[in-house]
Design goal:
Layout lengths: L3 E5 L11 H9 L2 E4 L2 H11 L5 E3 L6 H12 L4 E4 L12 H10 L2 E5 L4 H9 L6 E6 L4 H12 L4 E6 L4 H12 L4 E6 L7 E6 H10 L6 E5 L13 H13 L4 H12 L3 H13 L2
Parallel strand pairs: 1-4, 1-5, 2-3, 2-4, 6-7
Antiparallel strand pairs: 7-10, 8-9, 8-10
Helix pairs in contact: 3-4, 6-7, 7-8, 9-10, 9-11, 10-11
């Protein structure tokens, strides 16, 4: 019989958040796979678990992934564990899960801690509908476009940022959404120095210019202007506006920026639409 791949959530800071089921599974499987084997081995040691650990990360070669899948097909059981939180959520592992599913072997979730849901739960913002956007891009132009989109999103948005880029991110958010933009900043969730700040962007900048950003950050933005209940422009209306801009001689780049501001759609998406329309004129 084929084995099983367990997707096991691990604590994001406080070891007490580990579930009894997660402990049992990590102890019973043949192998634990982790992006950072040292961190997971340390966790297992503190739990008194001696299961072998092997690396699985974003650069894992396809050949190694195939060998792991073959072992599961042949009957081995494995646990895919994140360094912290729920695996595959802004974390390597999705291709391994997909490959195991393709073989017909079983993939089982062992749910538990997640920085995304932890931040939402203390944000005071609506979580009936939300989007998780992963990490903010590193390059300034891409980050500003990213922030412009989620600031206008009709649902609550959650994303991660590294401490050494937090100030740059907040400055970019101020430039695209203004200093009065509300934001919830969760730092070191579940850890000893846990902190949740409910501020606007200008206040957040003042705070972190005085206090060096340290630790892991999860940021939450409230629903933007799209939350008013008004539907955005239809695809046909967007295409019609794009054709009109081209017909009156507006350059492709300027037209893409204008459509981005008017519709909230990604600028690169609007740019590609304009190129397609030009080719078909």
């Amino acid at each position: 019989m084929p084995g099983t791949l367990y997707v096991v959530a691990t604590p994001i800071g406080n070891l007490e958040d580990i579930t009894e089921r997660a402990c049992r599974v990590l102890d019973e499987v043949d192998l634990v796979l982790a992006e950072d084997t040292r961190r997971v081995a340390k966790l297992l040691g503190r739990l008194g678990i001696s299961t072998s650990v092997d690396s699985y990360h974003g650069d894992t070669a396809p050949a190694k992934r195939s060998r792991l899948v073959e072992r599961i097909v042949d009957g081995a059981s494995m646990a895919l564990a994140s360094d912290a939180g729920t695996p595959v959520v802004s974390d390597p592992g999705v291709q391994l899960v997909a490959d195991v599913i393709d073989t017909g072997a079983e993939v089982v979730a062992v749910p538990g801690p997640s920085a995304v849901t932890a931040a939402l739960s203390v944000s005071g913002l609506s979580a009936d509908r939300f989007e998780f956007a992963g990490y903010a891009p590193r390059r300034r132009a891409q980050r500003r476009e990213f922030l412009s989109i989620i600031a206008k999103s009709p649902v609550t948005s959650v994303f991660y940022e590294a401490p050494h880029r937090l100030l740059d991110c907040l400055e970019d958010l101020e430039s695209v959404a203004g200093g009065e933009q509300s934001i919830v900043i969760c730092r070191e969730l579940t850890k000893l120095h846990e902190e949740t700040l409910h501020l606007n962007v200008a206040e957040a900048l003042n705070h972190f210019r005085r206090n060096e950003p340290r630790g892991e950050f999860t940021l939450v933005l409230p629903a933007g202007e799209g939350d008013s209940g008004e539907a955005g422009p239809s695809e046909e209306r967007v295409r019609k506006a794009a054709r009109t801009l081209l017909e009156i001689g507006v350059g492709t780049g300027d037209a893409a920026r204008l459509l981005n501001e008017l519709t909230g759609r990604a600028k690169n998406e609007m740019y590609q639409l304009l190129l397609d329309l030009r080719e078909n004129q």
